[in-house]
């Protein structure tokens, strides 16, 4: 199943992770080319979020390799020198942005304040440049003119769109989205999926954990079906319409 190419922007090899005596990931392998949308699907508890969080080291895998672009870390034999390890983690984190289930915006900061916090404080970018870039991103997510609003003045769907803009403000090479619509009221799901569709159309490299199977069918270049701690089936969007594996079939018949 390992079909990695030099052109792959993301490479994951042999990822293993246990919580206590529960081994959640038992050797997860996949790769993704630049400009593609990968969707992680699978039963609840199959480790989708753990894989996603491992990509930007919010979880530390027990072993396996993660590479994004030119930054990589082999968790099985990490640099023994602490500062070299920290540098490798930082390099990997700098290449991806994360959108969480619930947006986690700073409630006491305006929309603009939320968007420029990371670029200015973490990346040391110029405030005016960061603000101009943030306004463009707000336009991209359909929230032009809302820069002075506070999160509590926005709907859940608008807040999540700010969450996406905030992740993009850090200029990542890859955007990781962890069930970005699952905390939303049903009527607000569509507007967030529309923004993600636009990003896909603009050739952003996306990795998405979602239960929205119909959406996944529309946007996925690659579907990774996780089960039993491994990628049990991998393919294009046809995995969702014509799965080969019985466990994928069973899963889809439950959720569709
Ligand atoms: P999924 O996203 O597919 O629902 P997760 O990656 O969230 O699966 O979780 C996989 C398994 O690992 C679950 O059984 C979950 O309870 C467990 N798990 C995840 N994070 C932790 C943690 N920080 N501590 C203990 N167990 C965890």
TrEMBL record:
Protein name stated in the entry: Amino acid ABC transporter ATP-binding protein
Location in the cell: Cell membrane
Source organism per UniProt: Nocardioides endophyticus
Domain of life: Bacteria
SMART domains xrefs: AAA
Domain ABC transporter: residue ranges: 10-253
Pfam families: ABC_tran
Keyword line: ATP-binding, Cell membrane, Membrane, Nucleotide-binding, Transport
Entry's Gene Ontology molecular function annotations: ATP binding
Membrane topology designation: Peripheral membrane protein
InterPro entries, alphabetized: AAA+_ATPase, ABC_ATPase_HisP-typ, ABC_transporter-like_ATP-bd, ABC_transporter-like_CS, MetN_ABC_transporter-like, P-loop_NTPase
């Amino acid at each position: 199943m390992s079909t990695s190419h030099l052109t792959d922007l993301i490479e994951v090899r042999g990822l293993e992770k246990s919580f206590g005596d529960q081994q959640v990931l038992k050797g997860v392998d996949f790769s993704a080319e630049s400009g593609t949308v990968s969707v992680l699907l699978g039963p609840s508890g199959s480790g989708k979020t753990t894989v996603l969080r491992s990509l930007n080291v919010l979880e530390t895998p027990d072993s396996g390799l993660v590479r994004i672009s030119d930054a990589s870390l082999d968790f099985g034999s990490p640099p023994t020198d602490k500062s070299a390890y920290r540098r490798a983690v930082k390099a990997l984190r700098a290449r991806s942005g994360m959108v969480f289930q619930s947006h986690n915006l700073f409630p006491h900061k305006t929309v603009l304040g939320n968007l420029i916090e990371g670029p200015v404080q973490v990346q040391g970018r110029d405030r005016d440049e960061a603000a101009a870039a943030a306004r463009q991103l707000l336009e991209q997510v359909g929230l032009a003119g809302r820069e002075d609003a506070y999160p509590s003045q926005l709907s859940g769907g608008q807040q999540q769109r700010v969450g996406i803009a905030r992740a993009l403000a850090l200029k990542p090479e890859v955007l990781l989205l962890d069930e970005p619509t699952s905390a939303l009221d049903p009527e607000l799901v569509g507007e967030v999926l529309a923004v993600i569709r636009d990003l896909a159309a603009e050739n952003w490299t996306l990795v998405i954990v979602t239960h929205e199977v119909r959406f996944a069918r529309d946007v996925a270049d690659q579907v990774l079906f996780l089960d039993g701690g491994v990628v049990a089936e991998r393919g294009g969007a046809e995995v969702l319409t014509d799965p080969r594996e019985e466990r994928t079939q069973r899963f889809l018949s439950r959720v569709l």
